[in-house]
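Lesson 9: reading folded outputs for more than one chain in a single document. The general rule is that every protein is listed as its sequence immediately followed by its structure tokens, and records are never interleaved. Here is the first one.
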Amino acid sequence: MTTESPAPVLRSDTFDPLDLRVLSALEVNARASFSRIGAVLGVSDQTVARRYRRLRAQGGLRVVAVRDPERLGQDQWMLRLRCVPDTAQTIADALAKRPDTHWIALASGGTEVICGTRPRSPGDRDDLLLGKLPRTPSVVEIRAHQLLHRFFGGPDGWVRKFRALTAAETEALRPETPPRPGPARIDPEDEPLVAALERDGRAGLPELQRATGRSESAVKRRLTALIASGAVYLDVEYHPELLGHRLGAALWITAAPAALHSVGQALASHAEIAFVTATAGPSNIMATAVAPDTAGLYAYLSGPLGALPGVQHVEATPYLRRVKQLTYARRPR
């Protein structure tokens, strides 16, 4: 059994607790209207709109739809690519343009690319893992970790660990339609709707109607069904630095097989962990840790993580730069 760790602390000179509450509200219900968010938070809808615009302009805020491969039964991989010096950025940019990649960072002093990929088919997977990457001369080593079981991340956002909302506020913001058990699927006729939401998860019904050619009621009905089934979830992209947590690191953890599940569950409860999954590969758990600075990362590695029974080995790889989070904007040269 795991116990809840202390909440992270907002350490920002730019954003205040109300910004954090607005961000938390969007994480609970990304399509909630400004008036609904304002009513729950006790501020006007104009105030919420202003904070939303500022978060977009200064904090990299975007709301996008994400296909959940775990619910759809699709493969997921985390790749570690060791590259010839001075080539990692070019390789990362090329990978970021692929629609089947969703998270890319430079690490190890700029000689390693860490890439999350969600191939839509075995052919797409083989094209990347057996075709393009092995034939890239500047990639000198490939380590592929298949993701087996998500403990935290995906629909569960890290901002909720700040506990900026009360339980009552969270409940008041939740979408009216609860998750539905049963198979999750995206039908071919859903593709225009999902594609529009992948561009803008807060797109209004008239815009979605134009993108799909379907009636507003049909769009609303199918959108509700997709989200309720778990086939698609709405995610909030932002820069963790805006909350004062400037250092991210990949953790490659080896746990004793009998302790794999308990270690994963414990990590999911830690305030520093934004994502954690069981993997196949050289290690059996991969996590992303977020800390204010190197001292904070050291305190976590030597404290809560180091104290977990069953952890046999940890390799920490600090991220040098995020290239793609959910979306990709090419950096100017």
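And here is the second record, again sequence then tokens.
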Amino acid sequence: MKRHLSAVVVAGWGLLNGVLLAVLAVYGESALVFWLWGGVVLVLELAAAAVLLSSRTSPDAHVRYRVPDRGAGAVLPAAVGLLLVALCFVYGRWLLAVAVPLLAVSAALAVRGTAARER
């Protein structure tokens, strides 16, 4: 299953949504909610099947790409951290407890880099 990890991730996401659908059933939601959320679970599981089929038909297509810049891995945590800082103005300063560590991780990744050192 190690070669088809992407299909496992999508299928797990669908199963998690199935569990959330069961939680909604416990709280007695309306039938419309079940149809909508059940449709989402079905689409996710179909996507997982498509990913699995794709990875089985052409396993040679999976190539490891190198990140061109060593600090490029810092972009995503920095973007999420800055988004949370902006949301602090709307939802309160408690979001800084999440934003500051993300920005610290981003700074560490920018300084240290994410790729292995070349010789």
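What the second record shows: The helical segments are 5-26, 31-57, 75-91, 96-112.
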